[in-house]
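## Example record

The block below lists the input lines for one assembly entry, exactly as stored, with component labels intact.
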Amino acid sequence: MRAVCWKKKYHVEVEQVPDPEILNPRDAIVRVTLTAICGSDLHLYDGFIPTMKSGDVLGHEFMGEVVEVGSEVTNLSPGDRVVVPFNIACGRCFFCSRHMWSCCDNSNPNAWIAEAAYGHSPAGLFGYSHMLGGYAGGQAEYVRVPFADTGPIKVPEGVPDEAVLFLSDIFPTGYQAAENCDIQQGDVVAVWGCGPVGQFAIRSALMLGAEKVYAIDEHPRRLALARAAGNGNGHAGRVATIDFDDEGVYEHLMEATGGRGPDACIDAVGLEAHGTTIDAVYDRVKVATRLATDRIHVLRQAARAIRKAGTLSIPGVYGGFADKFPIGAIFGKGIKIRCGQTHVHDYMKPLLERIENDEIDPSFIISHRYSLDEAPEAYHQFRYMPNECTKVVLTP
Amino acid sequence: MERNIAVPEQIGSLLAGGTMFAMGVRRGGLSGIMSIVAGSALLAHGVSGRSRVYQALGVDTAHGPGWREIIERASHVHDSIAVNRPPGEVFRFWRDVGNLPRFMLDIESVEDLGHNRSRWHARGPLGVDVRWDAEIVEEQADRLIRWRTIDSESNVEHEGAVRFEPAPGNRGTIVRTDFHWKPPGGVVGAAAARLLPQDPARRVREDLRRFRQLLEAGEIARTGPESEGSRRRLQRQRDEVRDEVEEAGVESFPASDPPSFAAP
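Predicted structure tokens for the full assembly:
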């Protein structure tokens, strides 16, 4: 089959790879009908995530048609249309049984690598480094889906692929980020990063009752898309934007909240944060010289702006170590931090209902549509044209 | 002051100190005197087995791990893992010795011979076949299984125990394993085993992880050839090219007449 293979930093190619087969009784094979490039795939593209090998098949946002199931998969049959969560979870371990799906104990065949790095291994992921399982991803014609009796959700006919594809990752990820804020009626929420996850976090915060959302980015189109979040759903005027190139984020947020600060802050940027302030430049130097691995400019800004005893929610991906972590502000202001990979399994059903009830159409985020064979161009667009390119989908 | 220098180091110090002393006497002059002073210090180090410098630095070579301890460390592996199933179920799974090869990667087969005895076939280091018979010497239902080799055609002596404890709050079972090996070749064999690609401690850890996967998820997480993506295809191409070259080599270049590109 054809698949998008990671070759090296800044380089992906569509290549022929072996077709997947059922290996375990709980497996299914899915023929991919639509897949997407995630912002976190750009961390792979940029070489920020360790343990990638040349030739690895990328992609963790995909949906398609079940073509084959293992002997123990009774809930799915060939022909079913499914969306697959990006994290692989066994459904029966200590963590899965407590709905902490992204912490599954049993889905990472290379758990020892993550254990060496983190002390414990998180769940395996599709197409996201050998440390997280080494599973082939979904930017391909076919995918082997382990624990298919636990993860995939069937979607009804009549709902287009583009409307439900993002149940695999970015919609639940943005939603969990907002839910982690424990939003109370009247809360002010600030969201750093108006990429796909940020956009869904903004809309989810509104759904969960935020009074006002401040969206922070530098790209005019992404900021415009954020402002549009309030249109046509009774949330008009509830989203304001801050261009961090033009003004001080802290000063703006203090002015807006009378100095109290946002009740919750969401870092939807992650380890490749950039900026023009001194600490951002310092991070770049540190990472370039391998004295640190993650740039945490956004975390520092959020920790400074957030109100006392507020909640800092982190859906943005971090992978290693950071320097000048603002532990003083976090401690001194009694900030709660909520973070981690999304427990996608819990969100697919309720969010599918919201889509079916016309509360949201996630396809708003798509700006570019390509065929799978055009993946190298698609990655290039998403990476280097962030203003125009908000989300790319690929059709095999 | 207590002894803080190990015997081998004492002997080494005496030999080195004596040599320097003798050289200093023969050479004479300023450098000779310096050699005599340094040699004397080493001799004192060797004779007394006590060093104030070591004491000040917190160094103690006399009380480090002895041979016994080094062997013990190399041939004993302890590990534990929490399994999200009740102790009875976990115990029964392990007690059914036919299950063991399903998660112990080095074990090819275990045959239940009845009367608490079993016949083991393992793939040893470097692909060597290893076979032995084992006997369960102690068993407490849902709590403990202890076994040891009774007859080994491969000279491997092995003892093992696995304990099953209810995890705090009845959150499953904590499985604790102790394995002892007496590999052929004694100390050298044990030390060599540590240097092999499959470090026993690592191997046991991975075995226990697979054990948990089987009990909880019912299967072992793994990836297929498509996960190697285009690497596999490239490898195959390289193999094909190599085969072609080798075939061509055999046919067209007799050993006495190497091809020109092989010349330096």
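Residues 248-264 of chain B have pLDDT under 50 and may be disordered. The interface with chain A takes residues 82, 84, 171-172, 202, 205-206, 209, 212-213, 216-234 of chain B (CB under 8 Å).
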